[in-house]
Structures are given as C-alpha cells and as structure tokens.
Amino acid sequence: MYKPDIIKGDMDSIRTEVLDFYTNLGTKVVDESHDQDTTDLRKCVAYVRDLAPNLDKSNLCILVAGALGGRFDHEAGNINVLYRFSTIRIILLSDDCLIYLLPRTHHHEIHIQSSVEGPHCGLIPIGMTSVSTTTTGLQWDLTNTEMRFGDLVSTSNLVQGEKITVQSSSDLLWTISIKKT
Hints:
Jelly Rolls; 6-stranded mixed beta sheet; 4-stranded antiparallel beta sheet; elongated
C-alpha cells in the first residue's frame, strides 16, 4: 500500500472515510478550501516546487496520474498547469496517452519507448499560433509549418523511430498514445 506524505487541495471531492484513513496513517492534510482560484494540481505543483527552494529544478519531473479522461474543464485546467509551470517538466498521464509541454525556448529530442508508447502522436499549439514548427522522426514531418487552432494542428501523426525532434516558434503540447498491456 502507498501512503502519501501529504494530501493538499480544496477537499471538495475527497470522501470523509478516505481522508480519515490517510490521516490515521499519518499523512499530512493541507486544506486549501479558502483558495478557489487555483486548481488542486496547481496547488500541488507549487508545493513540490517550493519544497526545497535551493534545489536545482532543471531535472525535476512530476508525473500526474489520472490527469486526463474525466471532465474536460478539469483536463483544460491540468493543461493550463503545464503552461503555468513551463520550467518544470510535468507529464499528464491517462490510460490512453500522455501529454507534456514543449517550451519554444528549446530544441527537443523525444526518445520513444516503443514497447509502451506510440505510434499515434500529436503536436498542438494552444494559446498562440506556431508560426514555424519543424520535426523529424514522424510519418508526416513538419517543415517550417504554421499551426493554430481553426487551421492546421498536428493530430493522428505517427512516430517512425526511436527519436523525434521538434523545434517551434511557440510552446506546443506533445501527446503520444500509451499501448495497452
């Protein structure tokens, strides 16, 4: 059994018996029901970020299980957290796919674990037009391609090998399917 160190959030959806169970195990509970302007995920990522203020966060990676596949407004809020904390690598994971942010400030090399992910993938610009996106390693590579909502977005693409490269003029969401075991 896994015992979390902390349960943090606005406590509007946790069942009393679940909260009591973990409290009795010694899990710390931080009730932030006074803050309705931020999501539970945002509260938790900020907590992790601030946990060790002097720690180099460049290698920090936060995996968020169950972040997709529920209510769309919650999914959009979780995606918003990727943008809010763009300097931290945060991976949103569901049974079907994973999503993370590719900041425009980097040339990205994505190493594919073909035994568990792929082949379907996508690159999605949210919030602003990507004037120029270039990729390698996809079935339908992009070459200085403009993408934006209401026009072209790269969905239902396919990975072709073990490494994908992406360079873009704007932040993009990378999404790739997860293989069923």
